[in-house]
């Protein structure tokens, strides 16, 4: 049995990624060449969140560009967006995009709405145990205050087949505090390939606990699915593998060191504009965010804005003007707009927002993976947007999930449309 190793830690998220069109009346928001079509992603701060690279120790040189070879134009201003209402409107569109579903809710929805066959022919012939989770291990990380509770975790698991063949599978991961009745979904893996009982196709999911997890002992459960079919083919939980239980965890807000304050980013919306060459990569964007502060006192803040690609180092881009935050008001949203000219190849970019107290210089909040709308934004500069681009592919998972043959989260959305033949062509 693989052992639980306490060292440094992380929790993955129910990713809320909203892609939808908005009215063309917003088209002048960024620049004169803005396309009438706008793509939008909006998310509330996630209780659990997924990260690829948690190294956010970049020091911002205020007002100075990190790399002079990059040319861009930025503006910042107060926004008229009501992000709370926009988020609620989006969430009503699709049950699957509502965060923090319980395992029972997901099962009920799947049974009522899935048009997929329940079992594959191989499952019907060989039995449901033709695929199974052989073993799992959990590694814990990041106990900054030394109280024995960790704020990050990594779940490793090995899926095997009962006979020599290839299969495409994916898994849903759930977490709960010991003693709670309901399991809460926090991550769905990419589709990945396994072969027989080989250990080389082990899959890992690395996660940071962000908010909503008070100190305590937690446990993890894994549901396994065969790609293209709706029934669970195997489940591994704390009663099956002791490595999945008695995990001393807490979210990062309970850590006594690091960024912690009563002022925080609550909602973020990212809009992207202008794709002249129709390659799916845009050159203009607006990031709108709502910063809240507890209590009745107002607070003057500004925001440092960063970008990175492929989990690399953060690059400082711009600093917003100073603006005032009014408690929990939804009318004080602010926005940073960018128009990239050169030095930004076509790629999937992550954004990071660092909220600074304008009077003291204190870092009040520092967010990126907490919001899916800040992750994997398809962008390029104006030079690349006028000719055929050759972008790097997106990372297979924003959760440090790794395993053989990852096919991407979007594949799961297409389960009802594709996928019954590919498994039989791999031998």
Question: Could you characterize what this model shows?
Answer:
The protein has two domains: 30-81 and 262-386, Sandwich (Immunoglobulin-like); 95-255 and 401-425, Immunoglobulin-like (Sandwich), CATH 2.60.40. The protein contains four helices and 23 strands. The protein has helices at residues 83-91, 103-113, 121-126, 410-413, and strands spanning 5-6, 20-21, 39-44, 48-50, 71-78, 131-141, 152-161, 166-177, 184-188, 192-195, 203-209, 216-226, 232-236, 247-249, 263-273, 284-293, 298-309, 315-319, 323-326, 334-342, 347-357, 363-367, 377-379. The strands form four sheets. It has a six-stranded antiparallel beta sheet with strand order 2-3-15-16-20-5, covered by helices on one side. Strands 8, 9, 10, 12, 13 and 14 form a six-stranded antiparallel beta sheet that branches. Strands 17, 18, 19, 21, 22 and 23 form a six-stranded antiparallel beta sheet that branches. Residues 1-36, 49-68, 94-98, 393-402 and 404-427 have low confidence and may be disordered. Residues 1-24 form the signal peptide.
Overall number of domains = 2
Rg from C-alpha positions? 22 Å
Per the CATH scheme, the topology name of the largest domain is: Immunoglobulin-like
Q: Please give the number of β-strands.
A: 23
Query: How much strand content do the residues show?
Result: 35-45%
Measured between the Cα atoms of the first and last residue, the distance is: 31 Å
Architecture per CATH nomenclature, i.e. the level-2 architecture of the largest domain: Sandwich
CATH-level-4 superfamily name of the largest domain: Immunoglobulins
What is the 3D shape? globular
Look at the structure and give the CATH class of the largest domain: Mainly Beta
Overall residue-averaged pLDDT value = 75
Q: Helix share of residues?
A: under 10%
Sheet with the most strands: spatial strand order: 2-3-15-16-20-5
Tell me about the largest β-sheet. Answer: 6 strands, antiparallel
Structural class, judged by helices and strands? Answer: mainly beta
Number of helices, counting only DSSP H or I runs of 4 residues or more: 4
Low-confidence stretches: 1-36, 49-68, 94-98, 393-402, 404-427
In N-to-C order, the SSE pattern is EEEEEHHHEEEEEEEEEEEEEEEEEEH
């Amino acid at each position: 049995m693989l052992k639980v190793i306490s060292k440094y830690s992380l929790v993955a998220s129910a990713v809320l990624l909203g892609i939808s069109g908005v009215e063309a009346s917003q088209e002048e928001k960024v620049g004169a060449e803005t396309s009438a079509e706008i793509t939008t992603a909006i998310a509330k701060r996630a209780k659990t969140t997924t990260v690829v690279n948690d190294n956010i120790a970049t020091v911002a040189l205020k007002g100075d560009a990190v790399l002079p070879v990059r040319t861009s134009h930025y503006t910042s201003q107060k926004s008229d967006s009501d992000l709370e209402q926009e988020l609620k409107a989006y969430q009503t569109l699709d049950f699957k995009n509502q965060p923090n579903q319980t395992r029972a809710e997901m099962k009920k929805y799947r049974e009522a709405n899935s048009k997929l066959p329940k079992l594959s022919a191989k499952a019907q012939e060989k039995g449901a145990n033709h695929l199974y989770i052989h073993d799992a291990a959990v590694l814990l990380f990041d106990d900054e205050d030394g109280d024995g509770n960790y704020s990050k975790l990594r779940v490793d698991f090995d899926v095997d087949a009962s006979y020599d063949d290839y299969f495409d599978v994916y898994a849903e991961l759930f977490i709960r505090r010991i003693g709670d009745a309901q399991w809460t979904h926090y991550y769905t893996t990419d589709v990945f390939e396994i072969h027989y009982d080989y250990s080389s196709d082990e899959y890992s999911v690395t996660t940071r606990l962000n908010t909503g997890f008070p100190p305590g002992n937690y446990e993890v459960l894994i549901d396994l699915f065969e790609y293209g079919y709706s029934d669970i083919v195997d489940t591994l939980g704390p009663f099956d593998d002791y490595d999945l239980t008695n995990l001393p965890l807490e979210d990062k807000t309970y850590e006594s060191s690091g960024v912690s304050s009563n002022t925080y980013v609550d909602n973020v919306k990212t809009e992207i504009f202008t794709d002249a060459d129709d390659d799916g990569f845009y050159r203009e964007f607006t990031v709108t965010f709502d910063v809240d502060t507890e209590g009745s006192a107002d607070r003057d803040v500004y925001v440092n804005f960063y970008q990175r690609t492929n989990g690399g180092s953060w690059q400082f881009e711009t600093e917003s003007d100073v603006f005032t935050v009014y408690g929990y008001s939804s009318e004080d949203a602010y926005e940073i707009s960018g128009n990239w000219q050169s030095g930004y190849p076509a790629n999937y970019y992550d954004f990071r927002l660092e909220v600074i107290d304008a009077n003291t210089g204190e870092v009040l909040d520092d967010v990126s993976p907490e919001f899916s709308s800040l992750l994997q934004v398809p962008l390029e500069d104006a030079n690349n947007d006028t000719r055929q681009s050759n972008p790097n592919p997106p990372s297979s998972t924003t959760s440090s999930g790794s395993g053989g043959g990852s096919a991407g989260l979007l594949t799961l959305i297409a389960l009802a449309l594709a996928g019954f033949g590919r498994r039989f062509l791999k031998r």
